[in-house]
Amino acid sequence: MLIESRPATDPEVATLVAAQQRELRDADGGLPGQATVTHDDIRYLVAVAGGRAVACGGLQALDADTGELKRMYVRPAYRGRGIARQLLAALEELAYRQGHTTVCLETATYLPAAIGLYRSCGYEPIPVYGEYVNNPHSLCFGKRLLVAA
């Protein structure tokens, strides 16, 4: 498997982000959510297997010291193979190279696999922040990057 950087405008990134958002809406009981959007200020990494983009994740700078992980997603057929863990490590490395000392993220209370992944990779619960404050399903996690991942 190869992990590579892709622009926000990449059609495979857009497809993965759309699938991620659709799955989140379905898991949340089909409630309307935010429109599917890729942001130009997010640096996306994509996991490629057999020439196909099978997972994505992004990093967005919140400030000089803090990066936020965004849009983590692995296609269902590729789950359980450690791809998310490898992608998370690559995103942490990217954050470190960009000068961030901390990474944070938001996930949902109804995503136990994601919560388990983040906790097993050293993420600790932090107060809900930013746009997530009023969302009763939001959980936020953070991790200090003391050395390169």
Automatic annotation (TrEMBL):
Keywords: Acyltransferase, Transferase. CDD domains: NAT_SF (cd04301). It holds the Pfam family Acetyltransf_1. It comes from the Bacteria. GO terms for molecular function: acyltransferase activity, transferring groups other than amino-acyl groups. SUPFAM superfamilies: Acyl-CoA N-acyltransferases (Nat). Residues 1-146 form the N-acetyltransferase domain. InterPro entries: Acyl_CoA_acyltransferase, Bact_Acetyltransf, GNAT_dom. PANTHER family: AMINOALKYLPHOSPHONATE N-ACETYLTRANSFERASE-RELATED, AMINOALKYLPHOSPHONATE N-ACETYLTRANSFERASE-RELATED-RELATED. This is Acetyltransferase (GNAT) family protein.
